[in-house]
């Protein structure tokens, strides 16, 4: 599943193909993985969409509660801090732990499924550092 492998890497950047495309060309399984028409048509489980949007829904609920308790300034300040923390990252080909974002959200003391079984350093997907930097700088 190519979407599953890309979901593990938050900083993944699409790499353009350098081979000529034709009707008899095979798919690059190392970069894109196996394809399935069924996975692209329907979600695999009814709760999949809810789980994908869990953090977004949790943030909205927390900000609404904070607004009701402390006023409008508190969620605005927290959103500014979220944006500032999201801008600071490592180079595109290095994994970023986003520890500051986890600390702001209060997830730094929680151990979840993704902490143990979603280690991007163990992932088989790796891009070329030079191409990824050129893409980020807009040279490609």
UniProtKB/TrEMBL annotation:
One GO cellular component, as annotated: cytoplasm
InterPro entries linked: Ump1
Protein's UniProt keywords contain Chaperone: yes
Presence of keyword Chaperone: yes
BP GO annotations: proteasome assembly
Pfam family, one: UMP1
Superkingdom of origin organism: Eukaryota
Keywords: Chaperone
Family: Belongs to the POMP/UMP1 family.
Protein name: POMP protein
């Amino acid at each position: 599943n190519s979407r599953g492998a890309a979901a593990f890497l938050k900083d993944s950047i699409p790499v353009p193909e350098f081979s000529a495309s034709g009707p008899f060309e095979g798919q690059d399984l190392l970069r894109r993985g196996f394809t399935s028409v069924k996975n692209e048509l329907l979600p695999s489980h009814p709760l999949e969409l809810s789980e994908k949007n869990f953090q977004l829904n949790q943030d909205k609920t927390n900000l609404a509660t904070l607004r009701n308790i402390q006023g409008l300034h508190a969620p605005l300040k927290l959103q500014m801090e979220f944006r500032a923390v999201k801008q600071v990252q490592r180079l595109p080909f290095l994994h970023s732990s986003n520890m500051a974002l986890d600390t702001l959200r209060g997830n730094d003391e929680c151990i979840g499924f993704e902490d143990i079984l979603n280690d991007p350093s163990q992932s088989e997907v790796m891009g070329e550092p030079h191409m990824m930097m050129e893409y980020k700088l807009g040279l490609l």
